[in-house]
Amino acid sequence: MRRAVRLAARGRTTTLPNPVVGCVLLSPAGMPVGEGWHQAAGGSHAEVVALRAAGELARGATAVVTLEPCDTTGRTGPCTEALLAAGVARVVVGALDPTGAGGGLERLRGAGVETEAAVAVAEAEQVNEPWLTAVRRGRPFVTWKLAATLDGRVAAADGSSRWITGPAARDDVHRLRAEVDTMLVGVGTVLADDPSLTLRTADGGLAERQPLRVVADTSGRTPAGARVRDGAAETWVATGSDVGLGEDGRLDPEALLHKLFERGRRHVLLEGGPHLAGALWRRGLVDRVVAYVAPALLGAGPSALQDAGIGTIADIARLRLEDVHRVGNDVRMTLRP
How confident is the model over 283-324, as pLDDT tens digits? Predict the structure, then answer.
């Protein structure tokens, strides 16, 4: 199963809005005879790729799959039918499918296939965390990315912010962008920085697959000439009339996320906007934080988070530190609420 999880992880940048899935086929003697992973949305599922690799050796084999095989027809046929047609004798699953496209194990059991579930379930769920979170909560998984000085400033007192972190950290952000299908900023960030919000390759060119660019813009202040409107990627300027307003008179962030889910979006990277970050944080809508901290000081200027509903030290929001990594002369921290 851990080998299947590693295979599944190879699809992190290409499968959304589908889950990542890995599959390993074992002979009756326990020897690997085929493996595969879901490589792209609309392409062959992991089980089918592994079955093709195994050929006739799949008959009587055990299929070890990170996610319960589907039993419905979408852009591809049901994986259950492929497993049955190949003569697989046993199916071992890591995580169950919560979408209703599951039911695969029940179908397999009914056809006489031995099944087992929840094997290395923590690892199987972790590799698919954004997708599983989205389908369980009906809104995309939210990663908040921020770049700040050592004293927590995201811009100087005059509003200038390029560049707080170094080139290595900025390159690393594109690795992060490659794993999401949506990038979100507040209109204040657009007005202050005019970001392009595009995904670039290692040589600086535009990547073939571009995440959706979303501007949270309550009253439609995004300029016609803003770089997010340049046609390099799809853009949605989400206004109050599109989404609805919250109690504070600003665009309702929870409604925005539900709209994005309805549009097939499963992983949002919150790229900027201290007030927008505060609104999401206040409502418990941030699932992960990736913070790039520069060994630099500004002494004044906006902080990374504002209006988060924290008024006293008793309400301090403490995060769980998951990972720390040096990126050039900066530090990247991955944290959880």
Answer: 999 999 999 999 999 999 989 998 888 889 999 999 999 999
Q: Which residue has the higher pLDDT, 247 or 237?
A: 237
Q: What is the mean pLDDT of residues 205-227?
A: 94
Domain definitions of the chain by residue range: 2-133, 139-336
Within this chain, domains 2-133 and 139-336 share the same CATH topology: no
Cα–Cα distance between 237 and 89 in angstroms, integer? Answer: 51
Active-site residue set: 47
CATH of 2-133, one of 3.90.1010.10, 3.40.50.300, 3.40.140.10, 1.20.58.760: 3.40.140.10
pLDDT digits (tens, 9 = 90+) for 166-181: 999 999 999 999 999 9
pLDDT of 280 over the 80 cut: yes
* Helices and strands per DSSP (H, E), number in the chain: 11, 13
What's this model's pTM, rounded to 2 decimal places? 0.92
Whether omega before 163 lies within 30 degrees of 0, making that bond cis, reads: yes
- N- to C-terminal Cα separation, the chain: 28
Return the CA Rg of the chain: 22
Tokens representing 316 are 């301090």
Distance of alpha carbon 230 from alpha carbon 133, whole angstroms: 32
The highest-level CATH class for domain 139-336 is alpha beta
102 pLDDT band, cuts 50/70/90, is low
User: What's the CA gap between 31 and 203, in Å, rounded?
Assistant: 41
Task: Write the CA distances from 214 to 189, 207, 235, 288, integer angstroms.
Answer: 12, 18, 6, 19
For residue 312, the 8-state DSSP code is S
Cis peptide before 19 (omega within 30 of 0): no
